Amino acid sequence: MNKSYFCSERVRLRAMEPEDLEVMYSMENDSRTWDVTNFTVPYSRFVLKQYIENSECDMFADRQLRMMIVRVEDDAVIGTIDITEFSPMHARGEVGIAIRKEYQGNGYAKEALCLLCDYVFGFLYLKQLIVHISLDNEASICLFESCGFVRCGLLKEWWRVGGRYKDVVLLQLLRSAN
């Protein structure tokens, strides 16, 4: 496999490893992100350990893919990038990305997202990726638009957050015909 699918100058994507348990535990249980993840209760270490152990790291087998985002300079795990809602029949999936707070604002998310897009379009030949983003999350919208995603819909009052409903923008990236 072409290593460039998973490595840029500053970040690389890799499969989950058992040593990622504590980072995942911390990230998944950060209730400040639950509004975009649909989580309602904390995950236990046991459940996350089982998830890591049982994942085949094969999007076609698992119908999802989670990769760890690692900073090249020091091998620090700085976040995760996912494809969920994978539909092989329609060659599409939904992207999710989370960067740990202390690493945000450094361009790592864009590099990881570009790597993921290159992989799913250039190697797996998916047709499209989508993402749902709260309309007030301008940083995430800018991130995805900078990687070629375009707005294709607005979902009114789609997410309930803190007793209020938020509008969500739907962005899409189609594989270009070659």
From TrEMBL:
Domain N-acetyltransferase, residue spans: 11-175
GO MF annotation: an example: acyltransferase activity, transferring groups other than amino-acyl groups
Protein name (record): N-acetyltransferase
Classification via Gene3D superfamilies: 3.40.630.30
Pfam families: Acetyltransf_3 (PF13302)
Source species, domain of life: Bacteria
The entry's keywords: Transferase
Organism annotation: Bacteroides muris (ex Afrizal et al. 2022)
Ion transport found in the keyword field: no
Keyword Transferase on entry: yes
